[in-house]
Specification:
This protein is mainly β. It has 3 helices and 12 strands; from the N terminus they run ααβββββαβββββββ. Strands 1, 3, 4, 6, 9, 10 and 12 form a 7-stranded antiparallel sheet that branches. Strand 3 and strand 4 form a beta hairpin. Helix content is 13%, strand content 35%. It has helices at 23-28, 38-60, 123-126, and strands spanning 71-77, 83-84, 95-101, 106-112, 118-121, 132-141, 153-163, 168-179, 187-190, 196-197, 212-221, 232-242.
Amino acid sequence: MVARPTDIPEWASTAGRRLEPAAGEKDDGFNEGTRTPARKANWIVGVVADWVDYIRSIIDSNEEHTYQAAKARWKVIAPWTGVPQPMPDGSAIGWRPASVLDPGVVGYELESQQNGAALFVDVQSLLPDGAVLTRVQAVVDPGAARVGSSRMAMALYEHDIEDASGIVSVDRSEVFLVNDDGTSNRQVLDSGVISQAMSKQVPDQWGTVGYDATVRYLVITAGADAGTNRDRIHAVMLQYDDPGPRNL
């Protein structure tokens, strides 16, 4: 990107130093071999300078338009943004919205319907291209106190799909895995500090040698007895570094 100019354009701002050309002159422009009238030339350059300064004032009116360093941001999403895993027999889904009265106001949370129910969140589609995911948190209510792998869990997975030599390969990795604290208290599942760059670049054609694409998704899993002692998810929060404005 070209460095931002430091000079502010100004031309013929003194009263009487501009003369607007007639409509026909604007259509045809100046004729070859003729002397350009100074005040009419001043009008052309001056109007361009005025518009440049006007656009500059709009850009500068909001720092969001021009920031160059990445900004730390939070995106809070409702849990039903995710895709719940269905029951094996297709009779029900693993999570469903459940109403709650708190206090005197009806709201909704996501409630587990089966043991070990999984909720999938396509993290990459929720963040701007080039963003760096730095932390993931989820506010949950475990349905019971549990131990070990029977607890609620939150994990981020990465699938790297590439074709370097005409053979498609899929490399899968676990970025993090955290469990609840073993109590039934309302709590925050927290990934801690991570660094995952989000890229939405898509290869020209799947199956073309040289393409490389990455998929990242979050999985929140209910406890081992969550079909009876139902777990609840209130919200998922994504912290990320925003690379910069995408307009200017």
